[in-house]
Design a protein that fits this description.
It contains 11 helices and 14 strands. It is of the alpha/beta class. The structure holds ligand PAZ.
Length: about 400
């Protein structure tokens, strides 16, 4: 690529960034989040501690400014919340940028679970409430880890809701991470919408499902009299699908016209957090395209690692795609998968090492171990190399 082309494409990313951020307003909480993140980062930069920004959960796409309806996605934030715990265990300080009300590190063990939270509690004869004896050991372990993270100020939780909130928060926090240099790690596990309604095209109020209020808008507020109800406008007779009475307003079809969300990974790599290691996730449902899409993303954005996963097998396997490395499939070991009724041996052998697992060969339910317990040490190893390479590079200057 010629330097001219590079300059042109770099500035087009910059133009897209300016256009997006100036026309889609930031969340109200951004200044408080920035202040909290700045002091958190400064504290850990001074201690020469590695800091990871973990993004987690899905972004919403509001259809109205005063939002009644929005588009959402499947992500519960399991990957992000679980990964955050393993990063803390590995000595990182964690900024957890998460979808509001999605799973959180530590509390995730007791929320969104099939058991009701109250089932984890027990009433003593004296009326005091304690943990249910069956859950006490695990609860104590989780509580101790959570309290230790809080006591040492190792976990900063920042919530977002919409796609625009997320992008403003991501940009601000990534820029604040610059003083960390290569010690910064961005681990982008959130399920970020690819489409949105830009602010300038978004309805202010709840989108109406009938044309009953259209006349009010054209004519201004008016009193509905018996006569006006009995004499609908002649040019467009009002009726709905079920009742041809002229007094019933027409039901509307809603066609949602979405713009693509600009891809800001290049801006992140080149401008927002240029020295940190950047890990993005790629989710697909079609096994035939996963690795290809992960490689394409890596080539396009020139970051450090893409972790590919499939919707149906994401708790069982992921693939690491990194420049200069063979594709590396990380899997829950056979011995730690629950047994199927028909047994696992034969089907396990059918799974080839460098191909996605066939979901039909997996047992029902969750694996016995969390795959994030395998992912984080592998990411940490690559991050250590990233730091070493950066140190060698700055030493040779
Ligand atoms: O939140 P979760 O654990 O249910 O799902 C995690 C995930 C699949 C959203 C994540 O691993 C991922 O792939 N995030 C990036 C999705 C994408 O933008 O392609």
């Amino acid at each position: 690529m010629s330097s001219n082309t590079t300059n042109t494409s770099t500035s087009s990313y910059q133009v897209a960034e300016n256009a997006y951020f100036s026309s889609n307003p930031p969340p109200k909480a951004l200044p408080q989040h920035v202040a909290a993140a700045e002091s958190f980062i400064n504290q850990h930069a001074a201690a020469n501690r590695r800091v990871v920004l973990v993004t987690s959960g899905g972004t919403t796409v509001p259809l109205e400014k005063q939002t009644v309806r929005f588009i959402d996605n499947f992500s519960a934030g399991t990957r992000g919340a679980t990964s955050a715990e393993y990063f803390l265990e590995s000595g990182y300080a964690v900024i957890f940028l998460h979808r509001q009300f999605s799973l959180l590190p530590y509390s995730r063990h007791y929320s969104h679970s099939t058991d009701c939270f109250l089932d984890f509690l027990h009433e003593n004869p004296d009326g005091s409430v304690v943990a249910n004896p069956a859950h006490q050991d695990k609860m104590l372990r989780v509580l101790r880890k959570y309290n230790a993270a809080k006591r040492q100020n190792l976990l900063l939780m920042l919530p977002f809701v919409t796609i625009t909130d997320y992008l403003h928060e991501l940009r601000a926090v990534a820029q604040l991470m610059r003083p960390l240099g290569p010690n910064g790690l961005l681990y982008l596990a959130a399920a970020v919408s690819d489409f949105f309604v830009p602010a300038e095209r978004m309805a202010e109020h709840k989108i109406q499902s009938t044309d009953a209020t259209d006349m009010l808008k054209k004519q201004g507020p008016t009193t509905v009299t018996k006569e006006s109800r009995e004499q609908p406008q002649q040019d467009e007779e009002a009726f709905d699908n079920f009742d041809s009475s002229p007094a019933v307003p027409r039901s509307k079809r809603l066609i949602v016209d979405l713009d693509p969300v600009p891809k800001f990974l290049k801006n992140l790599v080149d401008g927002w957090a240029p020295e940190g290691m950047i890990v993005s996730f790629k989710l697909e449902t079609d096994p035939a395209i996963l690795v290809h899409k992960a490689k394409y993303s890596l080539e396009r954005y020139q970051h450090h690692l893409v972790i590919g996963n499939l919707l149906s097998t994401r708790k069982w396997e992921v693939v690491f795609v990194a420049p200069g490395h063979e594709d590396n499939w990380i899997r829950v070991p056979f011995s730690r998968r629950k047994k199927t009724i028909t047994g696992t041996e034969e089907t396990d052998q059918k799974n080839k090492e460098n191909e996605p697992l066939d979901p039909a060969t997996l047992p029902e339910g969750e694996p016995e171990i969390e795959i994030e317990g395998l992912i984080i040490p592998a990411v940490e190893e690559l991050h250590a190399k990233h730091i070493k390479t950066a140190a060698a590079r700055s030493g040779s200057k």
